[in-house]
Write a structure and sequence with these properties.
Blueprint (H helix, E strand, L loop, with lengths): L7 E3 L9 E3 L7 E5 L29 E4 L2 E4 L8 E5 L5 E5 L5 E8 L4 H8 L16 H16 L8 E4 L3 H11 L12 E3 L11 E2 L6 E3 L18 H7 L3 E2 L19 H15 L6 E6 L1 H9 L7 H8 L7 E8 L36
Parallel strand pairs: 8-14, 9-12, 9-14, 12-13
Antiparallel strand pairs: 1-2, 3-15, 4-5, 6-7, 8-15, 10-11
């Protein structure tokens, strides 16, 4: 397994260093902008002290559409990183960023898990070891199918270059069901993304053919500690179930992050989320799906909340529903990434002296 840490942040305050996560020594400034052309609401089902210096607002659209079983909020696709941003006084200020300093993130919360159902009946169910690494419910799989249809109908499946997934049963089932291929055939050389009946789900195998790569990343796991539903299995148990998912970025086979008697503080989740966004800038892919958890998304996105217009803040920072998808643009204002532009053109090729107009000969048969 590869090492991922470059610096250490303690997420426990005076309570010790039970949650130490590698993060850059100085947090770079990141800007999130919502891009909800592909927004999908899914199923209906804290104020942080640490600030990370976000400095832009988001532009919502009044356009919306709905259909049976789902609701979609839409914005026009912007093919350049130019956005009209509303200031706090209601004015409009243009904001312009180089395209190669932007990435599009399609953020997805997992579909309904068994633990979600049990906790709605009794919140103390979260402490039950019977919910260890809880899988999806049958209703959760229906939510996966609906989101998959939306992803294909919108054309999003043809745009995504990478799927990042939290290494938990419910998130990997969701990721494979939404972004994976159907119709896997035994005996072919290509590994399946998920074998049949993984996690007792009564599903056939999902193919990795014609799909983006899938990589498991621990940084986007749910709130750690105490609740068994948020404790993962060993990597060696997951690999036979999800053969085509890349687990090489996970340091240890066993779950060393989850603690029995200490719950990760909200600030620790936020710091881990910022670390995750910074890590994304080490990737070459420009359009990425992230399948993760409600708590992780809430605390990560809320850390940017002070930079938004009040009307935008709720749209970005509210809790995700099960199997909800929100598309956002992340801007590299801290120059973390190093990829050059593939569309910029320097001009003046070939170079030569600028001739005065009189020296330029008019082509024959041309009108003046």
């Amino acid at each position: 397994m590869t090492s991922r840490s470059t610096g250490i942040l303690s997420g426990c305050g005076s309570g010790g260093n039970l949650f130490n996560f590698g993060i850059p020594s100085s947090i770079k400034r990141l800007t999130l902008k919502i891009k909800p052309h592909f927004h999908y609401l899914g199923s209906k089902s804290f104020s942080l002290k640490r600030k990370y210096h976000p400095s832009t607002f988001l532009l919502p659209s009044a356009l919306s559409s709905s259909s049976v079983g789902c609701s979609i909020n839409s914005l026009p696709i912007l093919n350049s990183p130019t956005w009209l941003l509303a200031d706090m006084d209601g004015g409009v200020t243009p904001s312009l960023f180089p395209l190669h300093r932007c990435k599009t993130l399609h953020l997805v919360r997992h579909a309904q898990g068994v633990h979600n159902v049990e906790a709605e009946k009794d919140d103390s169910a979260y402490l039950s070891y019977s919910l260890f690494d809880a899988p999806l419910t049958p209703l959760g799989w229906q939510q996966v199918d609906n989101l998959r249809n939306h992803v294909h109908d919108s054309g999003l499946n043809k745009k995504i270059e990478l799927v990042i997934v939290s290494p938990m049963l419910r998130t990997m089932q969701t990721a494979v069901g939404v972004f994976g291929g159907r119709g896997y055939t035994d005996g072919v050389d290509i590994l399946p993304l998920m074998v049949a009946n993984a996690g007792n789900n009564d599903r056939s195998a999902y193919s990795s053919l014609n799909c983006p790569p899938f990589v498991a990343v621990e940084l986007c796991r749910e709130h750690l500690g105490v609740r068994p539903c948020d404790k993962r299995r060993s990597v060696s148990e997951y690999v036979p179930l999800f053969p085509a998912i890349d687990f090489s970025l996970i340091e240890s086979d066993e779950d060393t992050w989850w603690k029995t008697d200490v719950r990760e503080p909200n600030e620790g989740v936020t710091a881990r989320g910022i670390d995750f966004l910074n890590w994304i800038w080490t990737r070459k892919e420009k359009e990425i799906a992230v399948v993760t958890h409600s708590g992780f998304l809430f605390h990560t996105l809320k850390s940017f909340g002070s930079s938004y217009h009040p009307l935008m803040k709720d749209e970005v920072c509210k809790h995700f529903a099960n199997c909800e998808l929100r598309s956002m643009v992340i801007v590299d204002r801290g120059m973390i990434g190093s990829d050059p532009s593939v569309t910029n053109y320097p001009g003046k090729i070939p170079q030569g002296p600028d001739l005065p107009n009189a020296a330029v000969k008019t082509p024959p048969n041309s009108s003046s």
